[in-house]
Fold these 3 entries.
Entry 1:
Amino acid sequence: MDYLYKISVVVPVYNAGKYLHRCLDSLVNQAFSGYEIVLVNDGSTDDSGKICDAYAAQYPNITVFNKENGGVSSARQCGLDNSRGEYLLYVDSDDWIELDMLADMYNSAVETNSDIVYCDFYREFKNETRYAYQGVDGSYLLELFNHTRDGVLWNKLIRRECFTSNNIAFDNKINLWEDLYICCRILLKGATVKYLNKAYYHYDCYSNPNSILRNESIKDIYSLMNFVSYFEEILDDKNLLRVSKATIKDKVFKKRYMPIFKWIMLYKEINVWYIETYKGDTKNPITLAMIGMIKLYRFLFDRSLN
Protein backbone atom coordinates (compact mmCIF):
# COMPACT_ATOMS: atom_id res chain seq x y z
CA MET A 1 0.00 0.00 0.00
CA ASP A 2 1.26 3.48 -0.87
CA TYR A 3 1.24 6.10 1.89
CA LEU A 4 1.33 9.85 1.50
CA TYR A 5 3.59 10.23 4.55
CA LYS A 6 6.18 8.17 6.35
CA ILE A 7 4.81 9.12 9.78
CA SER A 8 1.55 10.57 11.05
CA VAL A 9 1.94 12.34 14.39
CA VAL A 10 -1.47 12.44 16.08
CA VAL A 11 -2.02 14.95 18.89
CA PRO A 12 -5.30 14.90 20.85
CA VAL A 13 -5.87 18.43 22.15
CA TYR A 14 -8.14 19.44 25.01
CA ASN A 15 -7.75 22.78 26.82
CA ALA A 16 -4.00 22.70 26.33
CA GLY A 17 -3.50 26.35 25.45
CA LYS A 18 -0.92 27.02 28.16
CA TYR A 19 1.57 24.45 26.91
CA LEU A 20 0.48 23.57 23.37
CA HIS A 21 3.16 25.80 21.80
CA ARG A 22 5.87 23.78 23.52
CA CYS A 23 4.49 20.55 22.12
CA LEU A 24 3.94 21.81 18.59
CA ASP A 25 7.30 23.58 18.38
CA SER A 26 9.02 20.28 19.12
CA LEU A 27 7.02 18.64 16.32
CA VAL A 28 7.44 21.19 13.54
CA ASN A 29 11.21 21.42 14.09
CA GLN A 30 11.98 17.73 13.63
CA ALA A 31 15.15 16.74 11.78
CA PHE A 32 12.99 14.67 9.45
CA SER A 33 10.87 15.09 6.35
CA GLY A 34 7.86 13.28 4.99
CA TYR A 35 5.63 13.45 8.05
CA GLU A 36 2.27 15.00 8.87
CA ILE A 37 0.90 16.36 12.13
CA VAL A 38 -2.77 15.68 12.82
CA LEU A 39 -4.24 17.87 15.57
CA VAL A 40 -7.56 16.69 16.97
CA ASN A 41 -9.24 19.48 18.92
CA ASP A 42 -11.50 17.51 21.25
CA GLY A 43 -14.00 20.23 22.12
CA SER A 44 -11.57 22.60 23.84
CA THR A 45 -13.10 25.63 25.56
CA ASP A 46 -9.88 27.66 25.77
CA ASP A 47 -7.74 29.03 22.93
CA SER A 48 -6.38 25.62 21.91
CA GLY A 49 -8.40 25.62 18.69
CA LYS A 50 -7.03 29.01 17.63
CA ILE A 51 -3.47 27.86 18.35
CA CYS A 52 -3.99 24.73 16.26
CA ASP A 53 -5.39 26.77 13.37
CA ALA A 54 -2.47 29.22 13.55
CA TYR A 55 0.08 26.42 13.25
CA ALA A 56 -1.88 24.80 10.43
CA ALA A 57 -1.86 28.10 8.53
CA GLN A 58 1.92 28.29 8.87
CA TYR A 59 2.85 24.66 8.25
CA PRO A 60 1.34 22.79 5.28
CA ASN A 61 1.90 19.36 6.87
CA ILE A 62 -0.45 20.19 9.76
CA THR A 63 -4.15 19.31 9.61
CA VAL A 64 -6.71 20.24 12.27
CA PHE A 65 -9.88 18.31 13.04
CA ASN A 66 -12.44 19.86 15.38
CA LYS A 67 -14.88 17.57 17.16
CA GLU A 68 -17.17 17.51 20.16
CA ASN A 69 -15.53 16.43 23.37
CA GLY A 70 -15.44 12.65 23.51
CA GLY A 71 -12.32 11.83 25.46
CA VAL A 72 -8.81 10.83 24.50
CA SER A 73 -9.80 7.49 22.96
CA SER A 74 -12.22 9.08 20.49
CA ALA A 75 -9.67 11.79 19.67
CA ARG A 76 -7.00 9.20 18.96
CA GLN A 77 -9.38 7.22 16.78
CA CYS A 78 -10.22 10.38 14.86
CA GLY A 79 -6.51 10.88 14.25
CA LEU A 80 -6.11 7.29 13.12
CA ASP A 81 -9.04 7.54 10.71
CA ASN A 82 -7.94 10.83 9.19
CA SER A 83 -4.17 10.37 8.92
CA ARG A 84 -2.22 9.05 5.95
CA GLY A 85 1.16 7.89 7.23
CA GLU A 86 2.71 4.43 7.17
CA TYR A 87 3.60 4.73 10.86
CA LEU A 88 1.78 6.44 13.70
CA LEU A 89 3.09 8.31 16.71
CA TYR A 90 0.70 9.58 19.37
CA VAL A 91 1.85 12.64 21.32
CA ASP A 92 -0.01 14.21 24.24
CA SER A 93 -0.54 17.95 23.94
CA ASP A 94 1.19 18.76 27.23
CA ASP A 95 4.33 16.79 26.34
CA TRP A 96 7.18 17.36 23.89
CA ILE A 97 9.73 15.30 21.98
CA GLU A 98 13.40 15.46 21.07
CA LEU A 99 14.14 16.90 17.64
CA ASP A 100 15.64 13.64 16.36
CA MET A 101 12.86 11.35 17.58
CA LEU A 102 11.04 10.88 14.29
CA ALA A 103 14.21 10.36 12.26
CA ASP A 104 15.80 7.86 14.63
CA MET A 105 12.66 5.84 15.25
CA TYR A 106 11.62 5.72 11.60
CA ASN A 107 15.10 4.74 10.41
CA SER A 108 15.19 1.97 13.00
CA ALA A 109 11.76 0.72 11.92
CA VAL A 110 12.82 0.58 8.27
CA GLU A 111 16.22 -0.98 8.93
CA THR A 112 14.77 -3.76 11.09
CA ASN A 113 11.36 -4.00 9.38
CA SER A 114 9.73 -3.65 12.81
CA ASP A 115 6.05 -3.07 13.48
CA ILE A 116 6.80 -1.16 16.66
CA VAL A 117 9.83 0.88 17.68
CA TYR A 118 9.81 2.09 21.27
CA CYS A 119 12.21 4.13 23.38
CA ASP A 120 13.01 5.40 26.85
CA PHE A 121 11.50 8.67 28.04
CA TYR A 122 11.81 11.43 30.62
CA ARG A 123 9.33 12.05 33.40
CA GLU A 124 9.23 15.81 33.87
CA PHE A 125 8.36 17.06 37.34
CA LYS A 126 8.26 20.64 38.55
CA ASN A 127 11.75 20.58 40.03
CA GLU A 128 13.39 17.53 38.50
CA THR A 129 13.63 15.24 35.49
CA ARG A 130 13.69 11.45 35.88
CA TYR A 131 14.91 9.01 33.25
CA ALA A 132 12.50 6.12 32.56
CA TYR A 133 14.43 3.13 31.23
CA GLN A 134 12.22 0.82 29.16
CA GLY A 135 14.55 -1.99 28.06
CA VAL A 136 13.54 -5.59 28.75
CA ASP A 137 15.42 -8.84 29.27
CA GLY A 138 12.63 -11.16 28.15
CA SER A 139 9.14 -10.81 26.70
CA TYR A 140 8.05 -7.21 26.24
CA LEU A 141 4.41 -8.27 26.41
CA LEU A 142 4.87 -9.91 29.80
CA GLU A 143 6.79 -6.88 31.05
CA LEU A 144 3.76 -4.75 30.20
CA PHE A 145 1.36 -7.22 31.83
CA ASN A 146 3.46 -7.23 34.98
CA HIS A 147 3.79 -3.43 34.98
CA THR A 148 7.60 -3.55 35.06
CA ARG A 149 7.54 -1.41 31.91
CA ASP A 150 5.16 1.34 30.85
CA GLY A 151 2.39 0.38 28.45
CA VAL A 152 2.04 3.86 26.99
CA LEU A 153 1.51 4.74 23.34
CA TRP A 154 3.53 7.93 23.11
CA ASN A 155 6.98 6.33 23.25
CA LYS A 156 6.08 3.97 20.40
CA LEU A 157 6.17 4.33 16.63
CA ILE A 158 3.54 1.87 15.38
CA ARG A 159 2.94 0.60 11.87
CA ARG A 160 -0.55 1.55 10.71
CA GLU A 161 -1.28 -1.98 9.55
CA CYS A 162 -1.09 -3.15 13.16
CA PHE A 163 -4.41 -1.35 13.60
CA THR A 164 -6.06 -1.77 10.22
CA SER A 165 -5.12 -5.38 9.46
CA ASN A 166 -6.22 -6.57 12.90
CA ASN A 167 -9.38 -4.44 13.26
CA ILE A 168 -7.95 -2.76 16.35
CA ALA A 169 -9.61 0.51 17.31
CA PHE A 170 -9.74 2.77 20.33
CA ASP A 171 -12.73 2.08 22.57
CA ASN A 172 -14.65 5.07 23.94
CA LYS A 173 -15.60 3.02 27.00
CA ILE A 174 -11.96 2.94 28.09
CA ASN A 175 -10.43 6.30 28.99
CA LEU A 176 -7.98 5.03 31.61
CA TRP A 177 -5.10 2.76 30.54
CA GLU A 178 -6.36 2.69 27.00
CA ASP A 179 -2.69 2.84 26.00
CA LEU A 180 -1.95 -0.46 27.70
CA TYR A 181 -5.04 -2.08 26.24
CA ILE A 182 -4.10 -1.06 22.68
CA CYS A 183 -0.43 -2.00 23.11
CA CYS A 184 -1.27 -5.46 24.40
CA ARG A 185 -3.83 -6.11 21.67
CA ILE A 186 -1.28 -5.23 19.01
CA LEU A 187 1.47 -7.31 20.61
CA LEU A 188 -0.84 -10.30 20.97
CA LYS A 189 -1.30 -10.19 17.19
CA GLY A 190 2.40 -10.92 16.77
CA ALA A 191 3.79 -7.44 16.12
CA THR A 192 7.58 -7.30 15.85
CA VAL A 193 9.31 -4.92 18.24
CA LYS A 194 12.55 -2.91 18.27
CA TYR A 195 13.87 -1.04 21.31
CA LEU A 196 16.00 2.13 21.18
CA ASN A 197 18.04 2.76 24.30
CA LYS A 198 17.58 6.52 24.32
CA ALA A 199 14.98 8.91 25.74
CA TYR A 200 13.20 10.90 23.05
CA TYR A 201 9.95 11.77 24.80
CA HIS A 202 9.27 14.22 27.64
CA TYR A 203 6.25 13.22 29.71
CA ASP A 204 4.94 16.21 31.67
CA CYS A 205 3.81 15.03 35.10
CA TYR A 206 2.82 18.37 36.60
CA SER A 207 1.54 21.07 34.20
CA ASN A 208 -1.85 19.87 33.01
CA PRO A 209 -4.72 20.12 35.52
CA ASN A 210 -6.99 18.42 32.97
CA SER A 211 -4.98 15.21 33.05
CA ILE A 212 -7.31 12.24 33.43
CA LEU A 213 -5.15 10.77 36.20
CA ARG A 214 -5.64 13.94 38.23
CA ASN A 215 -9.42 14.14 37.89
CA GLU A 216 -10.98 10.84 38.83
CA SER A 217 -14.76 10.53 38.89
CA ILE A 218 -17.37 7.81 38.98
CA LYS A 219 -17.24 7.83 35.16
CA ASP A 220 -13.56 6.94 35.42
CA ILE A 221 -14.42 4.10 37.78
CA TYR A 222 -16.70 2.66 35.11
CA SER A 223 -13.83 3.03 32.67
CA LEU A 224 -11.60 1.06 35.02
CA MET A 225 -14.15 -1.69 35.27
CA ASN A 226 -14.49 -1.81 31.49
CA PHE A 227 -10.71 -1.98 31.27
CA VAL A 228 -10.66 -5.03 33.50
CA SER A 229 -13.47 -6.68 31.55
CA TYR A 230 -11.68 -6.18 28.24
CA PHE A 231 -8.44 -7.38 29.74
CA GLU A 232 -10.12 -10.54 30.93
CA GLU A 233 -11.07 -11.31 27.34
CA ILE A 234 -7.55 -10.66 26.06
CA LEU A 235 -5.87 -12.74 28.71
CA ASP A 236 -8.38 -15.54 28.48
CA ASP A 237 -7.67 -15.83 24.75
CA LYS A 238 -3.97 -16.37 25.44
CA ASN A 239 -4.29 -18.22 28.75
CA LEU A 240 -2.38 -15.48 30.57
CA LEU A 241 -4.79 -14.97 33.47
CA ARG A 242 -2.47 -16.75 35.87
CA VAL A 243 0.38 -14.39 35.07
CA SER A 244 -1.50 -11.14 35.22
CA LYS A 245 -4.56 -11.21 37.48
CA ALA A 246 -2.66 -9.80 40.45
CA THR A 247 -1.08 -7.12 38.28
CA ILE A 248 -4.42 -5.92 36.92
CA LYS A 249 -5.90 -5.81 40.40
CA ASP A 250 -2.90 -3.79 41.54
CA LYS A 251 -3.20 -1.37 38.61
CA VAL A 252 -6.84 -0.58 39.23
CA PHE A 253 -6.55 -0.02 42.96
CA LYS A 254 -3.01 1.30 43.29
CA LYS A 255 -2.91 4.27 45.62
CA ARG A 256 -0.87 6.46 43.32
CA TYR A 257 -3.77 6.48 40.81
CA MET A 258 -6.54 6.99 43.28
CA PRO A 259 -6.08 7.70 47.00
CA ILE A 260 -8.06 5.38 49.24
CA PHE A 261 -10.33 8.13 50.53
CA LYS A 262 -11.63 8.67 47.01
CA TRP A 263 -12.47 4.98 46.75
CA ILE A 264 -14.34 5.28 50.04
CA MET A 265 -16.27 8.34 48.82
CA LEU A 266 -17.26 6.47 45.67
CA TYR A 267 -17.67 3.10 47.33
CA LYS A 268 -21.46 2.96 47.37
CA GLU A 269 -21.82 3.59 43.63
CA ILE A 270 -18.94 1.28 42.73
CA ASN A 271 -20.25 -1.44 45.00
CA VAL A 272 -23.77 -1.36 43.57
CA TRP A 273 -22.71 -1.14 39.91
CA TYR A 274 -19.80 -3.56 39.85
CA ILE A 275 -20.96 -6.23 42.25
CA GLU A 276 -24.49 -6.32 40.80
CA THR A 277 -23.06 -6.51 37.28
CA TYR A 278 -20.54 -9.26 37.91
CA LYS A 279 -21.79 -11.13 40.97
CA GLY A 280 -22.86 -14.08 38.84
CA ASP A 281 -19.40 -14.50 37.32
CA THR A 282 -18.08 -16.81 40.03
CA LYS A 283 -15.56 -18.62 37.85
CA ASN A 284 -13.42 -15.69 36.77
CA PRO A 285 -10.54 -15.08 39.19
CA ILE A 286 -10.10 -11.42 38.23
CA THR A 287 -13.77 -10.64 38.80
CA LEU A 288 -13.68 -12.28 42.20
CA ALA A 289 -10.49 -10.44 43.08
CA MET A 290 -11.99 -7.09 42.07
CA ILE A 291 -15.13 -7.62 44.14
CA GLY A 292 -13.00 -8.76 47.02
CA MET A 293 -10.80 -5.67 46.86
CA ILE A 294 -13.80 -3.32 46.86
CA LYS A 295 -15.25 -5.03 49.92
CA LEU A 296 -11.85 -5.21 51.60
CA TYR A 297 -11.22 -1.47 51.29
CA ARG A 298 -14.59 -0.71 52.82
CA PHE A 299 -13.99 -3.18 55.63
CA LEU A 300 -10.58 -1.68 56.44
CA PHE A 301 -11.99 1.83 56.37
CA ASP A 302 -14.82 0.93 58.73
CA ARG A 303 -12.35 -0.73 61.09
CA SER A 304 -10.17 2.39 61.11
CA LEU A 305 -13.11 4.46 62.37
CA ASN A 306 -13.76 2.18 65.32
Entry 2:
Amino acid sequence: REGLENPVPFHAVDAQGRAERLLIDGAEAPAMTFWNLDVEAGVLGSAAYRQEMAERSASAIRRWLSLADLGRAGFADEQGGWRALRPADIAILVRGRAEAEAIRSALAARRLASVYLSDRDSVFDSQEAIDLLHWLRA
Protein backbone atom coordinates (compact mmCIF):
# COMPACT_ATOMS: atom_id res chain seq x y z
CA ARG A 1 0.00 0.00 0.00
CA GLU A 2 1.12 3.52 -0.68
CA GLY A 3 1.21 6.70 1.38
CA LEU A 4 -0.92 7.00 4.50
CA GLU A 5 -2.62 3.67 3.80
CA ASN A 6 0.61 1.78 4.47
CA PRO A 7 0.65 0.69 8.15
CA VAL A 8 4.42 0.14 7.96
CA PRO A 9 5.84 2.91 5.76
CA PHE A 10 9.47 2.86 4.69
CA HIS A 11 11.60 5.76 5.88
CA ALA A 12 15.10 5.90 4.40
CA VAL A 13 17.86 6.77 6.87
CA ASP A 14 21.63 7.17 6.72
CA ALA A 15 24.00 5.49 9.15
CA GLN A 16 25.92 7.89 11.34
CA GLY A 17 29.14 5.94 11.23
CA ARG A 18 31.67 5.84 14.03
CA ALA A 19 33.94 8.56 15.29
CA GLU A 20 36.79 6.19 16.12
CA ARG A 21 38.97 4.02 13.90
CA LEU A 22 40.52 0.66 14.79
CA LEU A 23 44.28 0.80 14.31
CA ILE A 24 46.55 -2.23 14.43
CA ASP A 25 50.26 -1.46 14.23
CA GLY A 26 49.44 2.01 12.90
CA ALA A 27 47.25 0.81 10.02
CA GLU A 28 43.48 1.14 9.89
CA ALA A 29 41.89 -2.29 10.27
CA PRO A 30 38.81 -3.38 8.32
CA ALA A 31 35.52 -3.55 10.22
CA MET A 32 35.04 -7.17 9.16
CA THR A 33 37.43 -9.84 7.97
CA PHE A 34 36.57 -12.83 5.79
CA TRP A 35 39.02 -15.69 5.41
CA ASN A 36 39.13 -18.73 3.21
CA LEU A 37 41.44 -21.70 3.43
CA ASP A 38 43.57 -22.68 0.46
CA VAL A 39 44.10 -26.42 0.45
CA GLU A 40 47.05 -27.64 -1.59
CA ALA A 41 46.35 -31.34 -1.15
CA GLY A 42 42.80 -31.19 -2.49
CA VAL A 43 39.75 -31.93 -0.40
CA LEU A 44 39.62 -31.12 3.30
CA GLY A 45 36.89 -32.52 5.55
CA SER A 46 34.50 -30.15 7.27
CA ALA A 47 35.77 -30.95 10.78
CA ALA A 48 39.40 -30.33 9.79
CA TYR A 49 38.41 -27.12 7.99
CA ARG A 50 36.43 -25.92 11.01
CA GLN A 51 39.33 -26.64 13.36
CA GLU A 52 41.94 -24.97 11.14
CA MET A 53 39.88 -21.81 10.72
CA ALA A 54 39.15 -21.70 14.47
CA GLU A 55 42.88 -21.98 15.21
CA ARG A 56 43.73 -19.21 12.75
CA SER A 57 41.01 -16.96 14.14
CA ALA A 58 42.08 -17.50 17.74
CA SER A 59 45.72 -16.83 16.84
CA ALA A 60 44.78 -13.56 15.15
CA ILE A 61 42.72 -12.47 18.15
CA ARG A 62 45.53 -13.38 20.57
CA ARG A 63 47.93 -11.32 18.42
CA TRP A 64 45.61 -8.30 18.37
CA LEU A 65 45.10 -8.39 22.13
CA SER A 66 48.84 -8.80 22.72
CA LEU A 67 49.42 -5.75 20.52
CA ALA A 68 46.76 -3.89 22.52
CA ASP A 69 48.72 -4.64 25.71
CA LEU A 70 51.70 -2.95 24.03
CA GLY A 71 49.62 0.05 22.95
CA ARG A 72 49.75 -0.98 19.29
CA ALA A 73 46.11 -2.02 18.75
CA GLY A 74 43.18 0.13 19.68
CA PHE A 75 40.72 2.84 18.75
CA ALA A 76 41.76 6.37 17.80
CA ASP A 77 39.15 9.12 17.75
CA GLU A 78 39.06 12.40 15.86
CA GLN A 79 40.26 14.36 18.91
CA GLY A 80 43.43 12.28 19.22
CA GLY A 81 42.11 10.06 22.00
CA TRP A 82 43.13 6.42 22.26
CA ARG A 83 41.57 3.33 23.81
CA ALA A 84 43.25 -0.05 23.68
CA LEU A 85 41.42 -2.91 22.01
CA ARG A 86 39.57 -5.10 24.53
CA PRO A 87 38.16 -8.63 24.24
CA ALA A 88 34.63 -7.16 24.44
CA ASP A 89 35.31 -5.29 21.17
CA ILE A 90 35.62 -8.54 19.22
CA ALA A 91 32.76 -10.64 17.84
CA ILE A 92 33.03 -13.91 15.94
CA LEU A 93 30.06 -15.00 13.87
CA VAL A 94 29.53 -18.75 13.68
CA ARG A 95 26.98 -20.89 11.88
CA GLY A 96 26.15 -23.23 14.73
CA ARG A 97 27.21 -25.07 17.83
CA ALA A 98 30.01 -27.04 16.16
CA GLU A 99 31.73 -23.88 14.93
CA ALA A 100 31.13 -22.19 18.27
CA GLU A 101 32.72 -25.09 20.14
CA ALA A 102 35.73 -25.12 17.80
CA ILE A 103 36.40 -21.41 18.26
CA ARG A 104 35.78 -21.53 22.01
CA SER A 105 38.26 -24.40 22.32
CA ALA A 106 40.87 -22.58 20.23
CA LEU A 107 40.42 -19.39 22.26
CA ALA A 108 40.64 -21.31 25.56
CA ALA A 109 43.91 -22.90 24.40
CA ARG A 110 45.25 -19.33 24.15
CA ARG A 111 43.83 -18.39 27.57
CA LEU A 112 41.10 -16.21 26.07
CA ALA A 113 37.65 -16.35 27.62
CA SER A 114 34.63 -16.32 25.32
CA VAL A 115 30.86 -16.24 25.45
CA TYR A 116 28.47 -18.05 23.12
CA LEU A 117 25.38 -15.86 22.94
CA SER A 118 22.89 -18.29 21.43
CA ASP A 119 21.06 -20.93 23.36
CA ARG A 120 18.88 -22.00 20.42
CA ASP A 121 19.58 -23.99 17.30
CA SER A 122 17.86 -21.36 15.15
CA VAL A 123 17.02 -17.67 15.46
CA PHE A 124 13.64 -18.57 13.97
CA ASP A 125 12.77 -20.41 17.21
CA SER A 126 13.05 -17.21 19.25
CA GLN A 127 10.01 -15.42 20.65
CA GLU A 128 10.99 -12.32 18.67
CA ALA A 129 10.84 -14.26 15.40
CA ILE A 130 7.44 -15.68 16.31
CA ASP A 131 6.16 -12.20 17.21
CA LEU A 132 7.51 -10.81 13.95
CA LEU A 133 5.80 -13.56 11.97
CA HIS A 134 2.46 -12.74 13.63
CA TRP A 135 3.00 -9.05 12.96
CA LEU A 136 3.82 -9.64 9.29
CA ARG A 137 0.76 -11.83 8.82
CA ALA A 138 -1.56 -9.20 10.36
Entry 3:
Amino acid sequence: MQKNILKSGIALSELGLGCMSLVTDLTKAEQIIDCAVENGITYFDTADMYDKGINESVVGKALLKYQQRDDIFIGTKVGNRLTKDGSTT
Protein backbone atom coordinates (compact mmCIF):
# COMPACT_ATOMS: atom_id res chain seq x y z
CA MET A 1 0.00 0.00 0.00
CA GLN A 2 3.06 2.26 -0.11
CA LYS A 3 3.88 4.73 -2.85
CA ASN A 4 6.98 6.85 -3.28
CA ILE A 5 6.51 10.60 -3.24
CA LEU A 6 8.35 12.45 -6.00
CA LYS A 7 12.04 11.62 -6.00
CA SER A 8 12.48 11.98 -2.26
CA GLY A 9 12.29 8.27 -1.59
CA ILE A 10 9.66 8.85 1.10
CA ALA A 11 7.16 5.99 1.18
CA LEU A 12 3.70 7.20 2.10
CA SER A 13 0.57 5.05 2.21
CA GLU A 14 -1.85 5.60 -0.64
CA LEU A 15 -4.65 5.70 1.92
CA GLY A 16 -4.68 7.81 5.05
CA LEU A 17 -6.78 7.88 8.19
CA GLY A 18 -8.96 10.95 8.49
CA CYS A 19 -9.13 11.64 12.21
CA MET A 20 -11.91 14.24 12.27
CA SER A 21 -14.36 11.78 13.85
CA LEU A 22 -11.78 9.88 15.90
CA VAL A 23 -12.97 9.21 19.43
CA THR A 24 -11.50 11.34 22.23
CA ASP A 25 -11.01 8.35 24.53
CA LEU A 26 -7.27 7.65 24.24
CA THR A 27 -7.56 3.87 24.67
CA LYS A 28 -10.14 3.57 21.90
CA ALA A 29 -8.25 6.01 19.67
CA GLU A 30 -5.08 3.94 20.14
CA GLN A 31 -6.96 0.81 19.06
CA ILE A 32 -8.14 2.52 15.87
CA ILE A 33 -4.73 4.00 15.08
CA ASP A 34 -2.97 0.71 15.88
CA CYS A 35 -5.29 -1.09 13.46
CA ALA A 36 -4.54 1.49 10.79
CA VAL A 37 -0.75 1.20 11.27
CA GLU A 38 -0.93 -2.61 11.32
CA ASN A 39 -2.69 -2.43 7.96
CA GLY A 40 -0.12 -0.17 6.34
CA ILE A 41 -1.55 3.29 6.96
CA THR A 42 1.23 5.83 7.51
CA TYR A 43 -0.67 9.10 6.95
CA PHE A 44 -2.98 10.64 9.54
CA ASP A 45 -5.05 13.78 8.93
CA THR A 46 -6.04 16.01 11.84
CA ALA A 47 -6.75 19.69 12.51
CA ASP A 48 -6.66 22.15 15.36
CA MET A 49 -10.44 22.51 15.30
CA TYR A 50 -11.34 18.79 15.47
CA ASP A 51 -12.91 18.10 18.86
CA LYS A 52 -12.10 21.67 19.90
CA GLY A 53 -8.36 21.02 19.77
CA ILE A 54 -8.35 17.69 21.57
CA ASN A 55 -7.93 15.64 18.39
CA GLU A 56 -4.34 16.66 17.66
CA SER A 57 -3.33 15.70 21.20
CA VAL A 58 -5.10 12.34 21.04
CA VAL A 59 -3.55 11.49 17.66
CA GLY A 60 -0.11 12.53 18.89
CA LYS A 61 -0.35 10.47 22.08
CA ALA A 62 -1.65 7.43 20.19
CA LEU A 63 1.30 7.61 17.79
CA LEU A 64 3.98 8.04 20.50
CA LYS A 65 4.60 4.30 20.75
CA TYR A 66 5.84 4.10 17.17
CA GLN A 67 9.60 4.48 17.39
CA GLN A 68 9.98 4.62 13.62
CA ARG A 69 8.62 8.17 13.59
CA ASP A 70 10.17 8.80 10.18
CA ASP A 71 7.63 6.34 8.76
CA ILE A 72 4.55 8.15 10.15
CA PHE A 73 3.17 11.32 8.54
CA ILE A 74 0.68 13.74 10.08
CA GLY A 75 -1.19 16.37 8.13
CA THR A 76 -2.96 19.16 9.97
CA LYS A 77 -4.61 22.51 9.37
CA VAL A 78 -4.14 25.70 11.35
CA GLY A 79 -5.77 29.08 11.70
CA ASN A 80 -9.26 27.87 12.47
CA ARG A 81 -10.99 29.81 15.21
CA LEU A 82 -13.58 28.49 17.59
CA THR A 83 -16.31 30.81 18.77
CA LYS A 84 -17.82 30.67 22.26
CA ASP A 85 -20.65 28.48 20.98
CA GLY A 86 -18.19 25.95 19.53
CA SER A 87 -18.65 26.84 15.88
CA THR A 88 -15.73 27.80 13.65
CA THR A 89 -14.95 30.96 11.76
